[in-house]
Amino acid sequence: MTLLTKLASIALLIASGVIAALGVINREYPAPPITHERWARTISKSDHFILHLPLRCVDHPLSKRALKASSSEAAKSFLESKTEIHPARSLTEQAIQVKTFRTKQWQNGIKVANAVANVALKENRVISYGANFVKPKNIASATPIFQQEKAIENAEFVTGAKYNSYPVELQYIITDSGDAVLTYTIEVQNDDTFELYHVHVDASDGEVVSVVDFVSSATAYRVTPFTSQDLSDTGFSLITDPFDELASPNGGIAYVAGNAGYETTVQSSSTNIYNYVRDPTLSVYQGTNPDAARVNVFYIANMMHDLTYRYGFTEKTWNFQQDNRGLGGAENDRMEIRVQGNSIGIITVPADGRPAMMELGIWSQGDGAFQNDVTIHEYTHGIVGRLTGGGTAKCFQTTEAFGLNEGWADALPNLIQRTSAEDRDFLYAKWANGKNLRTYPYSTNKTTHPRMYGDSGTNSDTLAIAELWAVIWHEITVALMQEHGFASNLFDPTLTNGNTMTLHLIIDGLIAQPCNPTFIDARNAVIQADANRYNGANNCTLWKAFAKRGLGYGQGRY
User: Fold this and answer.
1) Which of 359, 378, 400, 467 is catalytic?
2) Pick the CATH number of 3-37+217-387 from 3.40.50.920, 3.10.170.10, 1.10.290.10, 2.60.40.10
3) Which terminus of the chain, N or C, has fewer Cβ atoms within 10 Å?
4) CA-to-CA distance for 164 and 213, rounded, in angstroms?
């Protein structure tokens, strides 16, 4: 089999004409710890329905009428009884050890933006449910008045980006006043800066109602191993056949993608040996250093694909994969990665079926492509964006939800790069940045990391929200490892050690939570995920971990 016929899930691009010298991150003016937010987000404040049921199951309405029903029919019936809104379209299904169904809200045959519901059934009985369906006070006509061409011009003017020819869709947006406004949903982007927006323009008068930002910022490879945080940990190794046969049965391959202004490189070798040696005496742009950077990022991203595939981020659950092999979901959505770019780390995550775009840049200490936790951080944004809300990648528009997204992105490298059950602190991006990029190390010691739910900023500041959510996951990981031990092989999801359990709870919780989750929503989804997969075996351990950071039982939104 030739290299180019293998499964294409990752594309690697390297910027041409880069003239920035090493040390572009100025020490006097350091890059902010959160590097992804490009636009002020707007979101309706209308209430949404959220219910997390206790561990006992409840019957759906059809069972009460002694009617035999499929799981899909039972899910529809239950959602309608709780929201009083009929799920007008079909439900999508994902199976963990329970059946989870998702559906969207429609009005007048038109989709309501970000109105998503999910219900989980076990043995055809409801065990959890969440929805952010809304009942509009007033519903605009389904017939647009304002010209679509003019709406596109308005979207371009407001964002400074250009319409990318993606089909314009009519959608209802629920405003703060509770009205359903008919809008054109227009996609605009800037290839140079990786900006990608969905702009909702009022179809009656052309006013921009909302802007959604999608930026969250026998083959052998010479790489820094997957569990190494950066090249200072273990150096480089020549790793043979690293990719998982279940997740990537045909291996991995860099896909050639044209991009004006960029030089695209086929990451290939006639011998399938990618043995590029990094030379620290040369500039990051000289010799084989760019090739070494590309190979390392390619390896880490494909390992993330394979690992999370094992835990449920598959074709059916909207993963990043060029060829879905007939296993469901929309394909042609590889992960495109640009190294030696202009930002220290950024990712753009559109809906399932559209390629994601990641960029890694040059840091003060060297090429960010060798800071593995940053690559994992960015890839995690893609996982979180796709799993929450059913593959739409549009469910992190509030400040709290956006901050939680950043928290998960720190939590995964912290988990993956553990090599034992030791209760050790985690410093993010410490090699490339020269020091911890976050305010505090992630630690179970509250003196070392003092963030608590309810502290100033943890409901309004993205960084504070992110660091709190990430340290909560740090607490959960350590607590579960102390109770269940450590699995040296994280790629075996059947193991019931603390680190494998943690990864299951992260993935399952993302699937279970509603669009634009709050701390409470995300917490409850984790508790429910444990009930679904482990029959609540870790209930007390999880509640103790949440309570330690002020998010315990009975704690509502503050």
Assistant:
1) 378
2) 3.10.170.10
3) N
4) 15
